[in-house]
Amino acid sequence: NAGVTQTPKFRILKIGQSMTLQCAQDMNHNYMYWYRQDPGMGLKLIYYSVGAGITDKGEVPNGYNVSRSTTEDFPLRLELAAPSQTSVYFCASSYSLGQTISYEQYFGPGTRLTVT
Amino acid sequence: QKEVEQDPGPLSVPEGAIVSLNCTYSNSAFQYFMWYRQYSRKGPELLMYTYSSGNKEDGRFTAQVDKSSKYISLFIRDSQPSDSATYLCAFGSGNTGKLIFGQGTTLQVKP
User: Fold this and answer.
1) What is the mean pLDDT of chain B?
2) Nearest CB to A107: which of B45, B95, B98?
3) Fewer CB near the terminus (10 Å): N or C of chain A?
4) Of A4, A90, A103, the CB nearest to B34
5) Could you give the count of Cα atoms lying within 13 Å of A17 in the half-sphere of its Cβ?
6) DSSP, res A73
């Protein structure tokens, strides 16, 4: 099992450009999450998904969009990049046991994004 | 008042020391208490997970939850240079699966 994979590892964007951060998991997890981590800060939830076709906003969703067409993939889209979106982005996944969601989240290696 | 507070450090200790890492929280609905370890330029990895209250031990690591004081701790015994990392506390409630993370404490264990 590869676990949670993210591409690209690094990216530099110019202000106003767009890009998609890719995230995939091979653990058949229902739940997937996108976080951003700014220097010296904890993780802030951007968007999450409870299954294919179902997504919802987290704490800091402005400037981002997501889609979930399959269980495995959960891409994050930046439409008009701004310097404030310079951060490290982490994707995570977790599973459910029946109706109970596990809080054990498994993280990918991250994507370092710089917007200049 | 912040929902979760964690001293960012850095905390520097000699090898073999006992390390105590702490977080306070304000939301009494939290029932899930997690500790993640994050090495430099890597993703967080789950270290310890406690549901409700009490202590949990795993090798050199002990997690404690004090719900009356809204305070959680992670103890590392016989600390090793390989323990040098950032430690993040995280909290969950209900059946949402969403976690609230602390700022993280950076630990350096010197040989």
Assistant:
1) 94
2) B45
3) N
4) A103
5) 13
6) B
The answer to whether A98 faces chain B, any CB pair under 8 Å, is: no
45-84 in B: which are within 8 Å (CB) of A? 45-46, 49
Q: Could you tell me if B41 lies within 8 Å of chain A, comparing CB atoms?
A: yes
pLDDT exceeds 90 at position A24: yes
Tell me, rounded to whole angstroms, the distance of Cα B31 from its chain centroid: 15
pLDDT at B81: 97
Phi/psi at A84 (5° precision): -65, -10
* Alpha-carbon distance values, B101 to A7, A11, B35 (Å): 24, 25, 9
The β-bridge partners of B92 are B32
> Predicted confidence band at A93 (pLDDT cuts at 50, 70, 90)?
very high
Interface mutation vs chain A, best among B2, B101, B105, B106, most A CBs within 10 Å: B101
C-alpha A32/C-alpha B102 separation (Å) is 20
Contact yes or no for A47/A35 (Cβ under 8 A): no
